[in-house]
Amino acid sequence: MRHYSSDISIVFGGGAGQGIQTIALTLVNVLKRSGCHVFACTEFMSRVRGGSNSTQVRITGKKRHAYVNRIDFLFALNADAIEHLKTRIAPTTMVFADKNQVESADPGHLVDTPITAFARQAGNPIYSSTAAVAVALGLLGIPQGGLDNYLREIFADKGESVVADNIEAARLGYAFGRETALREEIEVEIAVEPEKNRPKELLLDGTAAVGIGAVAAGCTFISSYPMSPGTGVLTFLAQRSHEFSIVVDQAEDEIAAINTALGASYAGARAIVTTSGGGFALMEEGISLAGMTEVPLVVHLGQRPGPATGMPTRTEQGDLSLVLHAGHGEFPRVILAPGTFAEAILLTQRAFQLADRYQLTVFVLTDQFFLDSAGTVPESAVRKEPIERHIVETDEEYMRYRFTPDGLSPRGVPGYGKGIVKCDSHEHDETGHLTENFETRRRMVEKRLRRINTLAEESLMPELVGGSADAPNIVVAWGSNRGVLEESLDTLQRADLAGLHFSQLYPINPSVAALLKGKIVTVLENNASGQFADLLHRELAVSTAHRILKWTGEPFSVEEVVEALREI
Amino acid sequence: MKTPSPAKPNPFDMPNKEMGWCPGCGNYKLLDALKGALIELGIDRRNLVVVSGIGQGAKTPQYLNTNMFNGLHGRSLPAALGIRLSNRNLTVIAESGDGCMYGEGGNHFLHAIRRNCDMTLIVHDNMIYGLTKGQASPTSLPGMKTPVQIDGVMLEPFNPLAVSLALNAPFVARASAGDEEETKEIIKQAISFRGFAVVDVFQPCVVFNRLNTYQWFRENTYYLPGDYDPADRMQAFAKAVETEKLPLGVIFREEGRPVYEDLLGIGNTPLRSQEFREEAFEKMIAEYR
User: Fold this and answer.
1) Dihedral of CA B81/B82/B85/B91: which sign?
2) What is the pTM of this model?
């Protein structure tokens, strides 16, 4: 008897182009509609075809946002998948594969699963993905009707025969899944809310969450150069550009991208650039230009392991120091790092608001793991904030860099009002003309930096994600590590341990010092040195007792964080 | 150095501005030609943005009473693109030197031509790096000795006209700053042209370039004759690669090419005034249910 209660990990492994993404997407959609909590994440090689990739789909009793090492059911589409995932194949793992396709591999508990044969029998080997999803649903004992409905929807424009053939492939796969479940005595217990009690939920991935946030913020302009994993946000806004009249320019390079965005913002657009570490490194002089000219800008940086080309399709939190120090000279900035999809929607809006209100660059720092993972979000958590507009109509006497008590000069744009708007990368006077006057220089630097105090006071406080604030041990995580910390603490259930998640990394709210005072602080980061731990020390003189770090290019698994926390 | 007649005050003048250019610099004549063109075209200074990079030529908008985006070295064209796409009611002129445009910003130069936005590019081409004190520029002639190129310039000069034509720029011209009136007329045509207009302007650097002087440009250039047909692209290529004597005037001009703003479907409402589409937003969210 194999009993699975409220937490099942299904992994699909295969080469690029074999359809594992389609399988996972279909399964996740059907599970979500059946009322399950689902979470999916993907790891893949930097190739267009072939290689060995995998997608994990988790079905959980509670809403989860983390990767687990454990595999309950592995669907291997080729022999390489078994080789690639062998360290994760345990005696308890059931491997579903076509025996002919995985001959050379030794997968342990193999269930010969003729997915391609089912597809062929239904009319075309192309229906293999549908058959695979159906096998999984059969194993789980989730009714086939949800899949049939989904297939009707997505293949509606392909004609009735395609729909019928897919449903036939599903029937064959599902029957096989049920038979296998009976034969292998698989018993699955998934807590599903009755339909009428279920909150309305959305199925999102990290990229869509950032994209929705940008749209909600009234973003009207994106100029970017494709680079994994940041490209998705460019694609998202391009796909939505007609509905929302967003101007999309694919730049010739990242230097062009940021300078174009700054030109657009100078002229009144709400502009964003999206990139990854290497592309951002090229943008750095532009960040400095934004600092000097006080032109609002939002930068989305999807991190991947560096230095240089690093591992293009893998994940890391290695670019915090980069964005913190990017650009020559001294000027303020804000760094946000969402931990959930709902937070990504809200924080991306906040990024635009802060950029406009404080006339500076705001970073939204994500990573490959976050952007390429998918899960459900209660619709009630998706909030659209009112759009604040800070552009003023200029008069004859208008001066772009007028000295004011808070250091913020009313922002005029060219062609709106009677005034002239001069914007200069040189040190400048109030009119925006270059100057070498030392006193003006002193005052202008001070003017630009003054807003950092207000920004620190308004900075988002970290959120308790497990345990009680009285606990002597505080585990700190930021950005995409929220889910893994939350779940690990939930697993451990230790009264002496609490988790704190930072979604704003800079500036840090001065009140954070009190939260961490007298605590034994552990920082969990997906990098090799502990960049946020160093920042906490620099900003608040908080010393970190333990650093739990990982820099292999993979996200933390719940198991390894649980293990690491046991040592504390 | 020429100053406009006080009888005809030009709204683009900045009379009290301290100038950063050397006496006798070709930039003064180019600035006057530009101001003349702007006033004669009746351009409202509030709806004009002059975008520049860094260098001596790039200081031009500092001396014009109009909107200015004086950005980074080499990056005037990307900034100009962003401005133009955000508000197509603005007249946009990008202005910088040969080093800024053909060296540091070379990639942007290529791709700005490919985009064909309706804007004007004026390059102050003095064949030398002035602000950094006399090193070779992309257009320096081979053999010229400089403090860095001690054995003389070895690289093939960048040919902005031939490159523009190769990328099918719809308007390609060359002027000579010493000839203020002719330069003004060429700039007027360029600004009035609908599409990306490239104007390379010979502009003597009187301090660091002792080879390409006012006199050298007079002796080594000629104006295209009145019967020259600028619509002929192959003939324009032939003109662009002439080296014996360098042709001046509008070398190529093709009307009616679609501009990037139109292809992108950008309307007359500036992006800053765009209304948020609540309904479309609700519809989008519903797609993720």
Assistant:
1) negative
2) 0.97
